[in-house]
Each structure stands twice: as structure tokens, then as C-alpha cells.
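Here comes an entry:

___
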Amino acid sequence: MRKKNSEILETEIEYVETDLVTLFLEEKRTFDMILANPPYIAEAERAEMSDYVLKNEPDLALFAENDGLAIYERLAIDLPHLVNETFWIGLEIGYAQGEAVQKIISKKFSTSRGSYPQRYEQER
């Protein structure tokens, strides 16, 4: 899928797996675009989740502290050091987190635009 996306977009895409952004901060790297699907589920939502997801995904990939917002709070601190002058950041969010994440991100980025509904009209 990664290779296919690069071919479709006719551009070189670098995919990196790291502890959030630690590697990039250490290397003082900056980017035009950052896409992330961080863990965003509150522990309190565990009981509502499907057994299939809970059995097939590690907790680290699903759950975050502070009602699922902890990773966004950390990203809001780190992302300003990682983007070029003109940039685009896309973050997947939980279905009820649009307003909270917008508030967190807009503290660091005045041009923050909001969320866009996914299928079933849920913000994601």
C-alpha cells in the first residue's frame, strides 16, 4: 500500500515508525506534511469496544490517558518544532473529540482549521 500511494501521488514518501516525534526532534528535521493516527481512546470506553479490536490491537495503539487526549497534548507541544513555514497536519481523532482536539491544537497553531466528518458523519 505504501509503495502504491507513492506511485499514485508521483512523489517520494518516507514512512517512519518512532515514539511519536522523538527521533525527528533529535535530528532537528522539519516536514511539509505530518499524518498521524495516535491512540485516542479513553480507558472508560474499553467496555464499549468490540472484542475483535481488543484482541487484535495492542492497548498501546488504542488507549491514551486524559480521556484519550494525552497524545494530542504532547503533539501540540512538539509539532511547532517539526513543521516548515507552510505545512499540513492531519490527525485521526475519536468520534467525540473534535472540539477538544481543536482547542488543544489551536493553542499552538493559529491557522488550525477543524475536523472533517468521515462516513456516518462522525468527526475523525
Summary: The mean pLDDT is 87. Strands lie at 31-36, 83-91. The longest strand covers residues 83-91.
